[in-house]
Specification:
The chain is an alpha/beta fold. It contains 13 helices and eight strands. An eight-stranded parallel β-barrel has the order 1-2-3-4-5-6-7-8, surrounded by five helices. The chain binds flavin-adenine dinucleotide.
Length: 303
């Protein structure tokens, strides 16, 4: 119930205005967001890299309402490609296709993605395409397939909660997709997605094993101890070296576990959001751990 309310709040423009302009939310934002500028993201990335933790940059912002906003987002992504190549090569760039206009005009979005993929390819920066709400899921996978043909290192996020995910994964021929397996963070209808958290976790475990057995260099985007342990043990059982897959976590979440994995010699990458448009991102993070609601209420009302 609380999770559902927070996910509904993530899409509320009215609440966004109240929360975003509240000075007291600053500390809460700082915990989950690396900073408002690209420079702050680069600085945070260098600190993570020193601790053997890789990063995927996330330029905050989601669905755009006008194509000019998608143009501006493309410029932001191109700036990020240049910054990664120049200051911290080896880190990746996560991309949200709603920010590039997929919901408004899939063709314009495809052109933007072509420009970005080419620039990233030239600069040696790998792209990771986020998976958003199922209403744009088909188009996102189609766009990914096109980029994958030319840039086979490109990753796509795949949501375990979505019922047709096993079918989608089976549908890839050659090249095989590089995936970031996640549970799924969006409010979905029961016909589209599993709604019961334990069922989603079971599906995550099933797909983890399938990915380790069938896909190149899978990434596991999770903070769930059960899933992390299962991936480690399954990889050993299948003879997959710990350098041939990676764990991914969100900036500011379970930092102790992130460091422990790095210290144990696992590859670990942190999804690092930066920018001013943090509201919807933050609300989804709050929804993932209901006790986080206390943090929101405290930050809004504490004196
Ligand atoms: C790197 C990365 C990229 C992602 N990309 C996408 C994407 O493209 N599309 C998409 O739909 N979803 C994405 N997600 C979000 C994902 O779908 C889940 O909503 C999120 O990871 C929570 O699921 P979990 O596997 O961590 O397990 P859960 O069972 O939700 O959580 C397990 C434990 O982890 C801790 N935890 C989890 N989340 C939080 C939090 N926000 N704050 C504090 N503690 C927390 C808690 O201790 C919790 O008990 C991404 C997640 C990661 C880590």
């Amino acid at each position: 119930m609380i999770k559902r309310l927070l996910l509904l709040a993530a899409d509320s423009k009215r609440l966004e205005k109240i929360v975003s302009t509240n000075k007291r939310t600053k500390r809460l934002v700082q915990r989950f967001v690396a900073g408002t500028t690209l420079e702050s993201a680069v600085r945070a990335t260098k600190r993570m890299n020193e601790r053997n933790i890789d990063v995927s940059f996330d330029l905050l912002g989601e669905t755009v309402e006008r194509l000019e906003e998608a143009d501006a987002a493309l410029e932001g992504y191109l700036d990020a490609v240049r910054a990664i190549a120049e200051h911290c090569p080896g880190n990746t760039l996560s991309v949200k296709l709603t920010q590039l206009g997929i919901g408004l005009d899939p063709e314009a979005c495809a052109k933007h993605l072509d420009v970005l993929a080419e620039a990233a390819g030239d600069a040696g920066v790998v792209l990771e395409i986020d998976m958003e709400h199922s209403s744009v899921g088909r188009d996102t996978l189609d766009a990914y397939r096109r980029v994958l043909a030319d840039y086979p290192a490109t990753r796509v996020a795949i949501q375990a909660m979505i019922r047709r995910t096993p079918h989608d994964l089976e549908s890839f021929d050659d090249p095989k997709p590089r995936i970031r397996l996640v549970k799924g963070a969006f409010l979905e209808d029961p016909g589209v997605a599993l709604k019961h958290h334990p069922d989603v976790t079971e599906q995550y475990l099933y797909l983890s094993e399938w990915a380790l057995a069938n896909l190149p260099d899978p990434a596991f985007g999770t903070h769930d101890d059960r899933c992390i342990d299962f991936v480690k043990k399954t990889a050993v059982r299948l003879g997959v070296d710990r350098k041939d897959y990676e764990f991914q976590m969100l900036y500011g979440v379970r930092r102790d576990v992130q460091q422990k994995l790095a210290d144990e010699g696992y590859r670990i990458r942190v999804y690092l959001p930066y920018g001013t448009d943090w509201y919807a991102y933050l609300m989804r993070r709050m929804a993932e751990k209901p006790s986080n609601l206390i943090l929101v209420i405290r930050s809004l009302f504490a004196g």
